[in-house]
Amino acid sequence: MKPFVFFCLAFYSVSSLFSTEANESPSGFTVDLIHRDSPLSPFYNPSLTPSQRIINAALRSISRLNRVSNLLDQNNKLPQSVLILHNGEYLMRFYIGTPPVERLATADTGSDLIWVQCSPCASCFPQSTPLFQPLKSSTFMPTTCRSQPCTLLLPEQKGCGKSGECIYTYKYGDQYSFSEGLLSTETLRFDSQGGVQTVAFPNSFFGCGLYNNITVFPSYKLTGIMGLGAGPLSLVSQIGDQIGHKFSYCLLPLGSTSTSKLKFGNESIITGEGVVSTPMIIKPWLPTYYFLNLEAVTVAQKTVPTGSTDGNVIIDSGTLLTYLGESFYYNFAASLQESLAVELVQDVLSPLPFCFPYRDNFVFPEIAFQFTGARVSLKPANLFVMTEDRNTVCLMIAPSSVSGISIFGSFSQIDFQVEYDLEGKKVSFQPTDCSKV
Known about the structure:
By secondary structure, this protein is mainly beta. It folds into two domains: about 5-265, Cathepsin D, subunit A, domain 1; about 270-435, Beta Barrel (Cathepsin D, subunit A, domain 1). About 10% of the residues lie in helices and about 35% in strands. The chain contains five helices and 28 strands. It has helices spanning about 5-15, 50-70, 150, 235-240, 325-340; strands at about 30-35, 90-95, 100-110, 115, 140, 160, 165-170, 180-190, 195-215, 225, 245-250, 260-265, 275-280, 280-285, 285-290, 295-300, 300-305, 315, 320-325, 355, 365-370, 375-380, 385, 390-395, 395-400, 405-410, 415-420, 425-430. Strand 16 and strand 17 form a beta hairpin. The longest helix has 20 residues, at about 50-70.
């Protein structure tokens, strides 16, 4: 048992006296999503060019894909206990405890547990703000080993302290990152509608991390993870009954000086012209991720089929690039090159593999992703980026190095409202000017 467990005993005895407030949560609310490279982000580097930011984001996408690859077994399946952590593309602010303490976390559709670093910490990675101090919060409460939230952890993820407190252990797929501490309940608050109102969710499960090492966080500004995945301990699963098990986001183009929007409940529902829906598939060997089934991609009048029927692509807001299985990607790329009638150039925006000289009279072909029951037509702005000198255009789709893992990334989702209906088990798309949402 690690040394931090002895700290847990003090937490458990003191916090067991605390009470919690009544739950009066709304049926819908909206929070800001901050792109990590936008001027509103603490990671913003004004000295970087747009191309350099694209390259850095592409490298982050590759790093995340490689972490998945490192964990695949001979059957190309991940054990249920494996978690994939990455520093993400979007950040969100929230408040924890009473009185509330502001935290900045990665908003991650590929994670479930919400966790922050807590004091007294046996071993924590550096952060620029003080650690969360649970003994100063009147609403903090650790859970017991026999409690319902503790049963949601897999056997290898949970342990019991000497006073019966539930201890979680999350090990992430890069082999070095982990978080360990008390599975607890606390009040979480969010600024909604640009801070016009605050919404509160008492008794929310979270990890009070007392022994942490996270290698992928890029600076001391991040203090934890806000899980938005399909797992039972994620935010969207915990507050599912209050939000109708629905959430959506609308992602702004890169370089925008505003924030994208993440909506929950009634505010997340998309209706009207242009809405298409496809089944959401949850796989037991990657239970946190949202899978869709991509049947084909059309380039102009040519259709490139995938031959898949069982969910072959993860939809992920935390990965910039879209990744396609290698053989399928090269068939698609060949059709695209033929339609564009161009010769490819190398090492322009490495690691993007498909780049070509730009001409003013270019007519880009119509490209659509045909998911089961939903044809999603992508604009050139969802597919290509241009270098600063306007001489070269590069495709934001790359071949996946991981057999059986494809990703529909955030660049392809820009200026779409994307709704996740966990109860109805579907994902819906609607072309939208996200600056007006």
